Amino acid sequence: MRARDKAAVSALRATLAALDNAEAVPVDEADLRGLALEQAPVGIGVTEAARRELSERRVVDVVRAEAAERLEAAAQLTAPAHADRAAQLRAEAAVLLRFLDGHGTA
Question: Can you tell me the distance from the alpha carbon of 12 to that of 3, in angstroms, rounded to the nearest whole number?
């Protein structure tokens, strides 16, 4: 990271965001409409929701999906004008796949 590997930084930031999204708990619309304003809870932490704990398998699935998404997008960029972007996407996918190599994903 200190070498400013842009492909690694980009891939890891996006994958961390995807993992964060995967931990989110779905909000039930009925819960949002259930209370009148004067009945709404007030105070520190009342808007906090518990996050899901992802299993190692689920984390690997998210990382694999992020890599596959990049490879698919790179495959669709066939015009010579997009060669740099396609190469960047392949490099990002390679970074993510390196992380999966040690997790028995064969």
Answer: 15
- pLDDT on residue 94: 95
Supply the pTM of this predicted model: 0.73
The CA-atom distances, in angstroms, between 79 and each of 57, 85, 94 are: 36, 10, 21
CA–CA distance, 102 with 106 (Å, rounded to integer) = 10
Asked whether the beta carbons of 93 and 67 are under 8 A apart, the reply is yes
CB atoms within 10 A of CB 92: 26
40 φψ region: left (φ > 0), alpha (ψ -120 to 50), beta (else): beta
